[in-house]
Amino acid sequence: MNKEENEFIYSESIGNATSQPIGTPYVNTSYAHVHKNILFVTVDAFHDMGSNFYDRENGLGGSGTISCTVVGEHLAWFENVLKEARKNPSIDHIFVQAHLPVIQPVRKINSSGQFIDNGTDSDFWKVMQKYEVDIYFGGEVHANTVTKDPESNLIQVISRANRLSNFLKVDVSKNRLTLSSFNEVGSKWKWNKNYTKYGELVIDKNGTNTTFNSSGSLELFDKTAGPLIWLKFKANDTYPFQERQILGLKHNQYKSVLWGNSINISDVVSSTGMVNHGVFGRKYIIFFSRFHNMLSTRN
Fold it and tell me: Which of 117, 118, 143, 232 could, after both became Cys, cross-link 107 (CB 3.0–4.6 A)?
């Protein structure tokens, strides 16, 4: 919410654009704010379609009256904010944040898996491409995936942050953005207040072409580089469950330790995992005794 004691927290206009989409249902939940050399735009992407919306042919809707999209006057406001920001030479970077992923696929765990209607074909995404947004931040799926738009330098960063078991730090200068991912470590099942760096993304805007360097949990994901999941089914490709952290997995020791050593799947207890050699990365795949079923992976 962009209100405190019935007053807007962020009310300063972005050029000729208002900081809120006045006259729309999103006046309290979508807003823009300039801090130093960054424009931050928060977008409420949950749209009331006015009826039980379900477009089976296009794979849209199915969640009652609410769909995940930015349209009409709300979209017009969003575009006007970005347009005005690009006229301001003091704004070096633009960050947009909403709850839902746009680019698919992304890693998921304990999630409904919602995403923006029409994905990268949506007007919402195309407006961000047009005005050269630097980073689109999303959540929803409780896991980390970083993807570069194939048609622009726009980066989608989907992050976790549940109960601060994982969080991102963003360092900003005039021509450089550095994102660092941190995982919680410690003996308690939560609130250890201790973290280790687990990934990095560097966006360097010096020179003619923007360059990207990434590693760990923030390594740029390329779905064209091979299969998402590739299991070799060899004995040396299985590991004790406790050797690898699976963020958010409700294992058998979920409320006693951060990293568990087993998990029950129906009536099967699993204590080992398999390495995924696919482009989703070197992840744990839960191994069931007689069946090669799969469960969500860690970041």
Answer: 143
